[in-house]
Give the backbone structure.
Amino acid sequence: MSSARGIAVRSCGIAVPEKVLTNDDLAATLDTNDAWITERTGIKERRIGGTTSSLAAEAASEALRRAGLSAEDIDVLVLATTTPDGIAPATASAVQDLLGMRRVGAFDLNAGCSGFMYGLVVSAGLVATGYERVLLVGVDTLSRITDWTDRTIAVLVGDGAGAVVIEARDGQSNLLSHNLHSDGSLRHLLYCEHGGYLWMDGQEIFRKAVRVVVESAEQALSDAGLEADDIALLVPHQANRRIIQAACQRLKIPEDRTAVVIDRYGNTSSASIPLALADALEAGKISDGDLLLLCGFGAGMSWASAVLRWGS
Ligand code: ACO
């Protein structure tokens, strides 16, 4: 797969609700405790609240501001989410209106927690077909589909949004390689019916996630002609710190070259990769020209990886 017109990611913005829910807060109403949650998941606290459209619009505004652009400069809005405000219209329509965007294309994309990764590849495809700038938002409010009396799920989820401005670039793309995968026969491992709550087989997802993340990350590295040592930062989906650690070990990427925000935000699904990316940028862990390895997995079961050169 190759295209004549490349992409560059120009900026990143995030939004999280103000309300912080700590492990101790959860332990007050659930049969759980801070030690178990910290040891088994790496999560210390998460943010809860807001709507998918409001968080998305806030993150998108910040990404636009950081790029020195306005909503009028965007040609398509791609919104990756598993928790749209409603069934119809697409949440992207509300976000487009909140941002005051021109009457350009706007749509939702659902690939579970891999949504941001799918959105990245779709955005690159849109650029390849002629669009100049795409605003990609990964956003989820899993708290709205969580049974807060179910300790197996309640301790994991958080709400948030992350957005990036993607634009056309002449010459070689900064998206050096990518792969998208899904195995629909595994959809029973993580699902939510209309009006219901999230259900998952945590142990089975854990086992499968480590394997598929490592496979697709290795494929992305090899397709880009790179070794793990060439990667400045691994930016993985944040579902469980132990999944991240196991993947790092197998990929031979040390944890200090890995973006981790799960301790503060929990599993924010489509938002977790841009939240981790923004945090690393803020901490000065990414310089222009650095190679990033992004990996996602989630409901579907879907998974995906990409190698991205940071900067324009
Ligand atoms: N607090 C205290 N104890 C708990 C809790 C809790 N919140 N949850 C389960 N336990 C207990 C279990 O009942 C079990 O007790 P037992 O030994 O007496 O039977 C024990 O802790 C161990 O349970 P396991 O399920 O084996 O714990 P595990 O180490 O597998 O961790 C977890 C569970 C955190 C869910 C892990 O399997 C995981 O993270 N899986 C992957 C999840 C994931 O990646 N999901 C993808 C997306 S999720 C999403 O989108 C919401």
Notes: The mean pLDDT is 97. The chain has two domains: 5-170, 175-309. The pocket of acetyl coenzyme *A is lined by residues 32, 36, 40-41, 113, 142, 151-152, 155-157, 190, 198, 200, 202-203, 205-206, 209, 239-240, 243, 267, 269, 298 (CB under 6 Å). The first helix runs from residue 23 to 27.
